[in-house]
Amino acid sequence: MIQEIDVRAFAAAHRDGATIVDVREAHEYESGHVPGSRNIPLSQLPYRLHELPKRERIHLICESGSRSATAAAHLSSAGFQALTVVGGVSAWRSAGQPTVTGSRADVA
Questions:
Q1: pTM of the model
Q2: Nearest-CA neighbor of 21 among 77, 81, 95, 79?
Q3: Which listed residue, 12, 39, 57, 79, has the most CB atoms within 10 A of its CB?
Q4: How large is the C-alpha radius of gyration of the chain?
Q5: Which residues on neighbouring strands pair with residue 19, listed in sequence order?
Q6: Phi then psi for 83, rounded to 5 degrees?
Q7: How do the pLDDT tens digits run along the chain, 108 residues long?
Q8: Is 98 in contact with 35 (CB distance < 8 Å)?
Q9: Going from the N-terminus, what domains does the chain have, and what CATH number goes with each?
């Protein structure tokens, strides 16, 4: 079963320093992402598992929640603590939360 987190709870986790992985393609990430998130496109995820912490919750986000749900299922089956952000970056923006542009995970 895929674990989900809503935007309100995700915002609190974000403030607390959550590990966030944006699984959108690089050009999508660069156009606006959650501050502090790192970009690992869904297509690259299976090859980059070694970059992720096994002992921390990993919050996965995409534009609407579909790709992040796929990523969460994959990571969960590989033994990671993975959650998908319901509604993705679209819901994050709609909730009035900040985004940053560019290829870096800078904090706003």
A1: 0.95
A2: 81
A3: 39
A4: 12
A5: 58
A6: -130, 145
A7: 799 999 999 999 999 999 999 999 999 999 999 999 999 999 999 999 999 999 999 999 999 999 999 999 999 999 999 999 999 999 999 999 999 999 887 665
A8: yes
A9: 3-94 (3.40.250.10)
